[in-house]
Amino acid sequence: MNRLVPALLVALGLLLAGCATSTRVVQMGPLGNGDRLVTVVVSEDRSVVRQECVNIPSAGPILGCHVWRRVTGPGGGSVQLVKIVRFTDAMPSELSLEIDVHELCHAIAALQPIDDPCHTDNGGIIESAAASAAVRWR
Q: Considering the domain boundaries, does residue 15 fall inside one?
């Protein structure tokens, strides 16, 4: 019995470690009022996706959504903030996700009557820990 307890604890630890899920949230494009133009949530946990996509109509399991809201922008005009939420079976690298969100920020900014805020956060420098050297956005 004494030998069984440590073995069960090790097995339980391995089981729980194998079940760990990850969620990453990246925001970009500050608007000066505390809002961000773009938020992307990527998760291996379907309950996170369901929670973020609450009140989104779906005929089946919710694997992703986009949610938007309008706010008053820096110049007094209306700006649409966008949040993209998606389930994944494998997390993208920090570098890959940062690049995706950055380019999405430019696309969303270009469709609105605002100055592009997508370099305001980082001055055009990739900040991901995966970047071994500073790389400048274009």
A: no
